[in-house]
């Protein structure tokens, strides 16, 4: 059994080579992705991608724990990070620790991710000092959809740019081992990456980030509710699924499936 990637391994990649990450929600997808990434993120985007919610806000801690445990079971070498869902950490550092400890204990994951900047710094310090590695998440933070009034790229105004920069700096200073920077204008994203003491993992940010992450279903063409500009389709698996299912339906109606090779009969 080979050793799993650790937060120190991730930090050691900073300014050596880009860090590779994708989301995973299930054991089989985790197993397919595992050989190719440095860490797997069990993102609360599963609320939209798997459960059909309109935002990530209805996702519960129990859902994250169930999917987190599945991803740990399905993978063996990539580090596993689990998103803390809305309402499970914003109340206080004590609430955040209690729930993050459950995530690590009940899933076997190596770290948690939480959204927020300067306002979350105290909580991030509280957790990292007590054995819970934290991946930060600043810029476009989907759990703030109601405060933002939608999903808007951040850093368009000077005041917004200043805020994203201050947020990234505060989260790094609080002890986060790396930071996801989402939906943030260039060249701000590049500037933040170049100045950051910890790796900046971009999504809708900059090729100059210290790593990249995408939602796996987005890049595979398996989630078509909306396709944001930052997504590159590396495959069109959704179209493949439709084709396969249509062929199955035809064969069932024509009684050409199952064929003799799929049926069980006594040997003559
Ligand atoms: O929930 C998620 O999938 C995420 C990534 C997009 C960073 O937070
Ligand atoms: Na998320």
UniProtKB/TrEMBL annotation:
Cofactor binding: number and manner: Binds 1 Mg(2+) ion per subunit.
Pfam family, one: Pantoate_transf
Organism: Oharaeibacter diazotrophicus
Record pathway: Cofactor biosynthesis; (R)-pantothenate biosynthesis; (R)-pantoate from 3-methyl-2-oxobutanoate: step 1/2
Membership in a protein family: Belongs to the PanB family.
Protein name according to UniProt: 3-methyl-2-oxobutanoate hydroxymethyltransferase
Keyword Transferase set for record: yes
Residues that coordinate or bind 3-methyl-2-oxobutanoate: 44-45, 83, 113
Active site: 182 (proton acceptor)
């Amino acid at each position: 059994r080979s050793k799993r990637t650790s937060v120190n391994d991730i930090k050691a990649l900073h300014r050596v080579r880009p860090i590779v990450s994708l989301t995973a929600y299930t054991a089989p997808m985790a197993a397919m992705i595992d050989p190719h990434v440095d860490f797997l993120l069990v993102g609360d985007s599963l609320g939209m991608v798997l459960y059909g919610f309109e935002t990530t806000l209805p996702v519960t801690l129990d859902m994250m724990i169930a999917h987190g445990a599945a991803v740990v079971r399905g993978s063996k070498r990539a580090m596993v990070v689990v998103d803390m869902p809305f309402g499970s950490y914003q109340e206080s550092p004590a609430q955040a620790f209690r729930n993050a400890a459950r995530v690590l204990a009940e899933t076997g994951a190596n770290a948690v991710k939480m959204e927020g900047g300067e306002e979350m710094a105290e909580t991030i310090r509280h957790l990292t000092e007590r054995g819970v590695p934290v991946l930060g998440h600043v810029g476009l933070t989907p759990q703030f959809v109601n405060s933002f009034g939608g999903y808007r790229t951040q850093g368009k105004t000077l005041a917004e740019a200043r805020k994203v920069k201050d947020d990234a700096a505060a989260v790094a200073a609080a002890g986060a081992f790396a930071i996801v920077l989402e939906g943030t204008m260039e060249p701000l994203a590049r500037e933040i990456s170049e100045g950051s003491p910890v790796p900046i993992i971009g999504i809708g940010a900059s090729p100059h980030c210290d790593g990249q992450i995408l939602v796996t279903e987005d890049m595979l063409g398996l989630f078509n509710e909306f396709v944001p500009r930052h997504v590159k389709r590396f495959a069109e698996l959704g179209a493949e699924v439709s084709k396969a299912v249509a062929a199955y339906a035809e064969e069932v109606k024509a009684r050409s499936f199952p064929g003799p090779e799929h049926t069980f009969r006594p040997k003559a």
